[in-house]
Every structure is written in C-alpha cells, then in structure tokens.
Amino acid sequence: MSVLKIKDVSKIFPNGTTAVDSFSLDVADGELVCLLGPSGSGKSTLLRMVGGFETPTSGLMTIDGEDITRVPPEKRPTGMVFQSHALWTHMNVFKNLAFGLKLRKVPADEIKRRVEGVLELVGLGGYGTRSVTQLSGGQQQRVALARSLVLEPKILLLDEPFASLDQHLRERLREEVRDIQQRLKITTLFVTHGQDEALSMADRIVVMRDGKTEQIDRPDVVYREPQTPFVAGFIGTMN
Ligand code: ADP
Ligand code: MG
Fold first, then answer.
1. Residue having the nearest C-alpha atom to atom 2 of ligand 1
2. pLDDT of the chain along its 239 residues, tens only?
3. What processes in GO biological process is this protein linked to (predicted)?
4. Does any ligand 1 atom lie closer than 6 A to the CB of residue 15?
5. In the chain, domain spans
6. Distance in Å, CA 39 to ligand 2 centroid
7. Long-range Cβ contacts of 84-87 (<8 Å, 24+ apart)
8. pTM score
9. Ligand 1 pocket: which of 45, 53, 82 to mutate (most atoms within 8 A of CB)
10. Residue nearest to atom 15 of ligand 1 (CA)
11. What ipTM does this complex have?
C-alpha cells in the first residue's frame, strides 16, 4: 500500500525557475526511496514540498489518503532532517529532542521515555545532558535524526544529511540510518547527489533531472541498466 502519493506536482519560483516539473511518485509503507540527481535537479525543492516548507504551484500530495498539499509543516505527519542540521546550541541534547514534544503538549514522563528511547536508538544513550556544541559532527547529525524520530513521523525526510561529513563517517551513518529505518519500518525519502549512497541504501531510486524523473527502479536494476549519464558515468568510474 502506498503511504505517500505525489501527483503532478510542480514548483515554479517567482523568478520563473521551474524547480519541479509535473513530478509524480508513490511511496509504499516502510519503503526507503532515494531521490538522486545532480545539483539543481529539484531534489530539495521536492522534499521541502513534502515537508510543507514550500507550497506547490500545482499538483496534489496525500499521506494515507489525506490531502496534505497545503497543510503547514507542524501539522503534517512528516519529520525532516536538513542538510545543515541547525540544532539549538543553547539547549542540551535532551532539550533539543524534547522541544517539539513540549509544543505538542506531550506529558513530561512520556517525553522522558521517548527521548531516552530514541537516543539509545541512534547510539547516544546517556548523552542527554551534554551540550550539543561538545559533540562531534557525526554525533550532531545523530541528534538531528533523533530530533525528527522522536516526533514519531509517518514519513521521514532526509536532505543530504551526511553531506558535511567525511567519507568514512558517511558510510557508517548510512548503514546506521538504514538499520534504524528498517527496524522502525519508517517510510523514508532520502535526497542525495551521491550515486554510491543511493545504490547502497535505497529500496528504489528516483533519478531526477530538471525537476523530472529520468529513471525509477530498484538499485540493482539502476546499476545494471542505468538510463542516465549521471549514473552510467559513475558506474563507469567504479569498474
Ligand atoms: P537540488 O536540491 O537537486 O540541488 P534544488 O531543489 O535546490 O535542487 O533547486 C532546483 C532549482 O530551483 C535550481 O535551479 C535552483 O537554483 C532553483 N531554486 C531553488 N530554490 C529557489 C528559490 N527559493 N528561488 C528561486 N529558485 C530556486
Ligand atoms: Mg539540494
């Protein structure tokens, strides 16, 4: 069953740029779909529309059959991790995670239970009282992920979450995120311009260019039969 439906969604910015062009996609329950494409292909704009941070010029988006096209971000069952994670540096780790739950009037004992559970999940058990400024880049990115997960979103949206980290850490976090995603069975859209990231993580890959889909397939099919220079060129460099 598809949880998220994106139907003929376009985004034309006031300056006339068409960032997303009649894009459609159905994402199944528990699926991890990678949006892969070069810089400027419309990945972030698309993800921001699903998260409610941009309004589509036209088209329709539904989650579990409910129209969310014009619902504000805080009322959507989505959680987004941005490229620059923007943690609140004046709050400790616990408070960074608790903030959104307090806004939603979740009782204090449940906040504690959920925050501690999610910190364990991302490998930061016992880090609640630490200042986020004392954490490494990788740990901060785990806090950003935890901050989204603690809201228990139906759909997790990740926009190049590891872009600022070194290759080794990127590969480790990739595996961790995939592991957490599968354990929680959380439906996920993952934006990346890294072909290796998409090929190693995704259930399905959408290769984008100019706001449109160039290819949509399972990673093994994209690997064997790449339909785009963006992927074919990369695979060429691997062999
Ligand atoms: P990607 O994430 O794939 O790099 P983006 O979605 O950020 O692509 O951008 C897609 C296109 O839309 C690019 O041409 C970009 O310059 C343009 N764009 C993005 N945001 C805006 C904006 N706020 N106003 C005008 N053009 C924008
Ligand atoms: Mg982007």
1. 44
2. 789 999 999 999 999 999 999 999 999 999 999 999 999 999 999 999 999 999 999 999 999 999 999 999 989 999 999 877 689 999 999 999 999 899 889 999 999 999 999 999 999 999 999 999 999 988 999 999 999 999 999 999 999 988 878 888 889 989 999 999 999 999 999 999 999 999 999 999 999 999 999 999 999 999 999 999 999 999 988 76
3. quaternary ammonium group transport
4. yes
5. 78-152
6. 6
7. 84/164, 85/140, 85/141, 85/143, 85/144, 85/161, 86/144, 87/132, 87/140, 87/143, 87/144, 87/147
8. 0.94
9. 45
10. 40
11. 0.99
